[in-house]
Write a structure and sequence with these properties.
This is Uroporphyrinogen-III synthase. By secondary structure, the protein is α/β, with parallel strands linked by helices. It is built from eleven helices and ten strands. It is 38% helix and 18% strand.
Length: 233
């Protein structure tokens, strides 16, 4: 496996982030946008429990509160923190999440907590607000740009076997391509792409990839299914 991540993920363990999280966790509905957000929730709750004046509810999930995850991987990460009653969509992306029945309309002033990070496509919050929700956003982790591992870049350049690219982020793909030397970028574009959604598949085509397919879901098992099926070495 060749790992080409242009990010370092850091939980946003600050007083401001914990205060925003405390407000979000008081909402009738709580949306978690990624496994990284679920892990940051765990980290911030653990840090808050050690603080002189804890402010976060324990456990985070209150009785009668509806929790939503963007996909099964996020739901699994929440379950590992004891939040087991979570709904997620069959289509595991922002559009699928927003199509869930419990998120179609809100009473005036009804609050929705959004546990996420700065950046991204910015689709969820404005859509919920347009449906009447009072969105309480908590940016509880941060993606910080990082240089690609040069050992992994060398492995990519020297790879002779057919490649499969598991694609779950269009922004990450653009950042990876921008950092790769031209020979390595050309080698990567020869890969078969297994994209987590049709939107990402189109991003790959726009970036110069010719062999592009859409996986059954965004999880590792779905993205790597062509390998399991023997379609590629």
């Amino acid at each position: 496996m060749i790992e080409l991540s242009p990010w370092t993920i850091r939980s946003e363990n600050t007083a401001v982030a914990r205060a925003a999280l405390a407000s979000a966790l008081q909402s009738a509905h709580v949306l978690v946008t990624s496994p990284n957000a679920a892990r940051a929730l765990r980290d911030l709750c653990a840090a808050d429990a050690r603080a002189a004046a804890p402010s976060l509810p324990r456990p985070p999930q209150r009785e009668g509160q509806a929790w939503y995850a963007v996909g099964s991987g996020t739901a699994q990460a929440l379950a590992e923190s004891g939040i087991a009653d979570v709904r997620w969509p069959e289509r595991m992306d922002s559009e699928g999440l927003l199509a869930l029945p419990g998120l179609q309309r809100f009473d005036a002033g009804e609050a929705v907590g959004l546990l996420t990070a700065p950046g991204g496509r910015g689709v969820i919050a404005p859509t919920l607000a347009a449906r009447g929700a009072q969105v309480r956003r908590a940016d509880i982790y941060r993606r910080e740009p990082a240089r690609l591992d040069q050992f992994m870049v060398a492995r990519l350049s020297q790879a002779r076997a057919p490649l499969l690219l598991a694609l779950s982020s269009g922004e990450a793909l653009q950042r990876v391509l921008a950092q790769l030397p031209p020979p390595a970028a050309a080698r990567l574009r020869e890969a078969r792409v297994s994209a987590a959604s049709e939107r990402l598949a189109q991003s790959a085509r726009d970036a110069g990839f010719a062999d592009v397919g859409v996986a059954a879901g965004p999880g590792a098992r779905e993205l790597l299914a062509p390998l399991a099926h023997g379609d590629r070495d």
